[in-house]
Amino acid sequence: MFKKIIILFLCALALSLQSQERIFQIRNSNNIEKRISKNTFLSVEDRVYITPKIEKLNFILLGELEHEYYSKKWLELGISGRLYWKKNSEEWSFEQSPMLFGKISSTSKKFKIDFYNRVEYRLLKNEQNHFRHRQRIKVALEPFQKSWFTVFAKEEGLYSFDDEKFNRLRMEIGISMKLINFLELNFSYLLEKKKKIPDWTTSDILAINLNFKI
User: Fold this and answer.
1) Long-range CB contacts (< 8 A, 24+ apart) of 8-13?
2) Any bridge partners for residue 48, and if so which?
3) pTM score, two decimals?
4) Could you list the residue range(s) of the whole structural domain that residue 34 is in?
5) Residue 183: C-alpha distances to residues 9, 138, 154 (Å)
6) 162 φψ region: left (φ > 0), alpha (ψ -120 to 50), beta (else)
7) For the CA atoms of the chain, what is the radius of gyration?
């Protein structure tokens, strides 16, 4: 299964090389998550996107409150709310999003697969409010049979219920290392296709992520 995911990822990468316009970015993100109760979590995350070619830097700050109202080994259902700030050049934009989410998981001796769906209503300051659907599938395995080291592949698509419709596709492959009980470090490569009406742009992103659980 995991080999098939990698083959599909490499095929998509090969096709994307035909694109005339490509953007290289470096993304650094840090996430802190706090369990408030058995099924309620509060998280804060910052992201920095660096585009070396045009010397551009974007900054994103997110705050999210999540509650799982149904949680089993193979199924999670819940609600969440997010506050989102983004800085482009000298301007800040702001967004609020109430959300519903669900995740189906399956685990075997060789790998784990997650299928995640989320519907959000985007309340935007300077744009029309609209619904958006996010869908993601993730496959992970422990190649050295060590629980602290994981290899993963992800595919994610976004569909907005506005003029853009299907507007973003991400494919990612990387490694995850659990350094200590409350700290996880991820390195990955992302291929992102993003619609900017009427065209699409292609980005190659090298990502570094730190996750803290307190």
Assistant:
1) 9/153, 9/155, 9/171, 9/173, 9/191, 12/171, 12/191, 13/171, 13/191
2) 28, 59
3) 0.85
4) 2-213
5) 28, 20, 21
6) beta
7) 18
CATH number of the domain to which 83 belongs: 2.40.160.40
Peptide bond into 52 cis (omega under 30): no
Cα distance between residue 105 and residue 113, in whole Å: 6
- Are 14 and 31 in contact, with CB atoms under 8 Å apart? no
CA count, 13 A, side-chain hemisphere, 65: 6
**Is the CB of residue 40 less than 8 Å from the CB of residue 66?**
yes
pLDDT in tens, 83-137: 999 987 778 899 999 999 999 999 887 889 999 999 999 999 878 999 999 999 9
pLDDT at 9 > cutoff 70:
no
**CB proximity list for 198: less than 8 A, separation 6 or greater:** none
Residue 48 and residue 30 in contact, taking contact as beta carbons nearer than 8 Å: no
Amino acid at 209: N
CA distance 112 to 142: 9
Q: Which two tokens stand for residue 103?
A: 């995740």
Distance CA 173, CA 153 (A): 4
> How far apart are alpha carbons 148 and 15 in whole angstroms?
34
Determine whether 172 is exposed, middle or buried from the number of CB atoms within 10 Å of its CB (0-12, 13-18, 19+).
buried
22-30: average pLDDT: 94
Instruction: Tell me how many domains the chain contains.
Output: 1
